[in-house]
Design a protein that fits this description.
Blueprint (H helix, E strand, L loop, with lengths): L10 E5 L2 H13 L3 E5 L17 E5 L7 H9 L4 E4 L7 E6 L10 H8 L3 E4 L8 H4 L3 E4 L2 E2 L2 E2 L3 H13 L3 E6 L9 H10 L4 E4 L4 H8 L13 E5 L6 H10 L2 E5 L5 H10 L7 E6 L7 E6 L3 H4 L7 E5 L2 H27 L1
Helix pairs in contact: 5-6, 8-9
């Protein structure tokens, strides 16, 4: 059970070493509390005046067993004690996959990394609208849009490294998964070259989750036993079209609206049936999510009003989704009819 307490104007005593407690201090300050600090169990470090009776004691687990008597006295006096996790190691970069943009598709690892961050560099495909709920870190928008990069990739890498070398715990929050067309490999290389420790927390890739949001399975028994993920940022070569058309299974294209005409024409030239079903899922898990379904021979005109962010799904699995949708709609209609008959 999670409880929310209004801490605005309340005295909160945060205990624990300065290093371990730095993020807890920020979190309580962001909540509007008047924060007091105690860095050592014996109070020898001189953190300044302490409240006579704090509303809450936030005890950061810094590994020092000497805090136990103090916390026991607080509990005996009826002062609530909240146990807080220790802050992450500074001078560290974590690449975090934010999934397709839905808060409930963030992993536990992603939420923990954001909680422990000192600074977060995020892009527009990550769930950035929710960041103020997830972290008290400094937030820096380095988002890219088609044809416009707010911050160049090399500059993003430079900012990450500089922040880590300055002693900050850095999170680079990306949409989807950092290693699926997310340039995560380049960012890891930049950190390693600078001697900065770096780790990667995988995210839910939009290649699977966005089709699922539209009811489309990328594989289905007896229909497709494989799927291929393709970047839609640049047109494919004829050889790549031929290879894709010959593989079979499902083709998933990320951010492929701009190159859809070349892709559809290339696959048809490579021998793919013009009647192959194609789905365009726009803004998956976001307001205004929309699915457009057509055939390979007509998708260009059908999707003329579509825009990125979008995921293209090419394959017979699109028919599976359509069949399931029709069945669900028919079942719902029968239920409504039965209810009306009972009422009559």
């Amino acid at each position: 059970m999670q409880l929310t307490i209004d801490l605005a104007g309340r005295d909160v005593l945060v205990t624990g070493s300065a290093h371990a407690a730095r993020q807890a201090v920020r979190r309580y300050e962001a909540a509007g509390a008047i924060v007091y600090r105690l860095s050592k169990p014996d109070g020898a470090e001189g953190d300044g005046p302490l409240p006579e009776r704090p509303f809450l004691v936030a005890a950061v687990d810094d590994g020092d067993a000497g805090w136990k008597p103090l916390l026991e006295r607080c509990r005996e006096a009826g002062i609530p004690v909240a146990i807080e996790p220790t802050a992450g190691e500074p001078r560290h970069v974590t690449l975090v996959g934010g999934g397709p943009g839905a808060l409930d598709l963030l992993t536990v690892g992603a939420v923990n990394a954001l909680r422990d961050a000192d600074v977060v560099f995020y892009d527009r495909l990550a769930p950035y609208q929710e960041l103020v709920r997830l972290t008290s870190a400094e937030l820096v928008d380095v988002g890219k849009r088609p044809g416009h990069h707010k911050v160049a990739q090399c500059d993003i890498e430079k900012l990450m490294v500089e922040a880590a070398l300055a002693g900050k715990n850095v999170v680079r929050l990306k949409g989807g998964d950092p290693y699926v067309f997310g340039r995560g490999g380049e960012e890891v290389t930049a950190c390693v070259a600078a001697g900065v420790p770096v780790r990667v927390i995988s995210g839910v890739t939009s290649a699977i989750s966005v089709p699922a949001a539209a009811g489309i399975p990328v594989t289905h028994r007896g229909v497709s036993h494989m799927f291929t993920v393709v970047s839609g940022h640049a047109p494919l070569t004829e050889k790549e079209h031929t290879h894709l058309a010959g593989l079979g299974g499902t083709i998933v294209v990320l951010m492929g609206i701009g190159t859809l005409p070349q892709l559809a024409a290339g696959l048809r030239r490579a021998g793919m049936d013009a009647g192959m079903p194609v789905a365009v899922v726009e803004r998956g898990y976001r307001p205004g999510q929309r699915t457009t379904i057509a055939e390979l021979g007509t998708i260009e005109s059908a999707a003329s009003g579509c825009s990125n962010p979008a995921v293209l799904v090419i394959g017979e699995v699109v028919r599976v989704a359509e069949a399931n949708r029709n069945h669900a709609e028919a079942s719902a209609e029968l239920s409504r009819l039965a209810a009306s008959l009972l009422e009559a």
